[in-house]
Amino acid sequence: MGIRTSSAHLSVAVAVRRSRIDGYGVFADEPIAAGARIGALTGEAITVAEGRRRAAGRQRIMLVELSESRAIDATRSEDALRFTNHSCAPNARIQVQDGAIEFFASRAIAPGEEITVGYGATHHEGRLACRCGQPGCAGWL
Hints:
Keywords: Chromosome, Methyltransferase, S-adenosyl-L-methionine, Transferase. By secondary structure, the chain is mainly beta. The protein is 6% helix and 33% strand.
């Protein structure tokens, strides 16, 4: 059973529930058109240095670097999008602009489908196995 969620930061209805990829994931509760804004991620504003300190030795941290000096730690955020899992064939993308972290559908997403993004460079530095299960999976984050 998933938790339906709504927030001023979401543009579409989503649910948070167990994911086959890892832990919990975010799932579309309604059809999402290609290019549609899914929502924004919020969290604690910190320095990149503090973010890297927090990430050291931890497998689970929800951290987005906004610039060379600023980051957002969404680990304690109540936003559903903090549960967005990585995929080597993502159906959404993260856009960081003017300090905002927004998610957009890269293609149409069907109700019940897990919303995924490509994380890009992470603090795991290629040491954490990728579990996306997609054809052509890189194997590591």
